[in-house]
Amino acid sequence: MTHRAVSGTPPMAPPMHHARSDEEIARALTSTSSARFSERLIGYALAACGLLSVLTTVGIVAVLIEEALQFFGDVSAVDFLFGTTWTALFANGSFGVLPLVSATVLIAALSMVVAIPVGLLVAIYLSEYASPRVRAVVKPVMELLAGVPTIVFGYFALTFITPSILRKVVPGTEVFNVMAAAIAVGIMVVPLVASLSEDALAAVPRALREGGYGMGATKMEVATQVVVPAALSGIVASIVLAISRAFGETMIVAIAAGSKAQIADDPFESAQTMTGFMVQAFSGDVETGSTVYKSLFAVGLLLFLITLVLNLISNRIVARFREAYD
User: Fold this and answer.
1) Is 114:191 a contact under the CB 8 Å cutoff?
2) How far is Cα 230 from Cα 210, in angstroms, rounded to an integer?
């Protein structure tokens, strides 16, 4: 009996997708290379933006220093920094900047008396007491206040705060006065303090709150003795930023505080700030290259240095407290 060889399953043809796989690999490599190029391009663009901001700052400072040095060639730096008479726009004027600095500092300090308590209370309410629905409505509405043009706050101080509030409390209040300007500036920076402080409070870990509640503390005790100390670095940063904003405010003080350059010792009298003088000088007929013109840059440089010192202090405080809570 003859046996027929049973042929097995014919061998399968070799796969024909090698070319397709190579194409896919090439496409993937091309896509990866394109993604890397895009990432590098984005990195270069971001670096260029950062460099542009640095160069802009350097350019501004260079212009201020150049013009200020020319001013100090005409006026002694000692007389400028420690003089008590500022009559720059008068014939044979004096350039003692202390009256402008005193008014600027007084308005910034009084504005913080308004902004810090109100801003912190609003932040604590939004973070610890308000429901998510209320927070979602109140915080954006509050932040819209920061978008109101400052000239509106200036006229608000001039037409409402002074005649309707201050003159009823202190009858001898002048039409243009430091207190009205300070109140308006304080109202203006309340959203800045409240929003940044609320962000800092919201970032405090929930475990700290639960630990306070577990020890029998009330909501107010947890908020003031646990959450606020833990978020102190962010709160301090918001306050210093608000002070810097108050120092640099222009239109409110130019409209409400007046243009009488004198040592500000009575908040219900008129005074002129550093930015107020700059607005007054630029809105007049100041000759380019004159001593008065150069004094604008000297005042601007001094204001820049003050805000720079405030920011450096803020960074030191924030770094210190962040290390304490790490």
Assistant:
1) no
2) 14
Which tokens belong to 176? 């243009």
Question: Tens of pLDDT along 235-259?
Answer: 888 898 899 889 888 889 999 998 8
Do the Cβ atoms of 255 and 152 come closer than 8 Å?
no
Residue 86 pairs with which residues in a beta bridge?
95
Neighbouring residues of 267: CB distance < 8 A, sequence distance ≥ 6: 106, 110, 177, 178, 179, 182
> Residue 183 — left, alpha, or beta (φ > 0 → left; ψ -120 to 50 → alpha)?
alpha
Q: Are 311 and 85 in contact (CB under 8 A)?
A: no
Distance CA 264, CA 104 (A): 9
Owner of token pair 């006229």: 155
Write down the pLDDT at residue 22: 62
DSSP 150-176: HHHHHHHIIIIIIIIIIHHHSTT--SS
Q: Is 60 exceeded by the pLDDT of residue 283?
A: yes
Q: How far is CA 259 from CA 99, 122, 181, 273, 280, in A?
A: 11, 34, 12, 8, 8
- Those residues whose C-beta lies under 8 Å from the C-beta of residue 87, and which sit 6 or more positions away, are 93, 94, 261
Q: What is the pLDDT of residues 27-84, one digit of tens each?
A: 666 667 777 777 888 888 888 998 998 999 899 889 889 889 988 988 888 989 998 8
Question: Residue 284, Cα to own-chain centre: how many angstroms?
Answer: 30
**Which residues touch 96 (CB under 8 Å, ≥6 apart)?**
79, 80, 82, 83, 84, 85, 86
Question: What is the rounded distance in angstroms from the CA atom of residue 155 to the CA atom of residue 276?
Answer: 15
DSSP state of 223: I
Instruction: Report the percent of the chain where pLDDT is more than 70.
Output: 88
Average pLDDT over residues 192-212: 87
Region class of 258: left (phi > 0), else alpha (psi between -120 and 50), else beta: left
* Amino acid at position 238, single letter: S
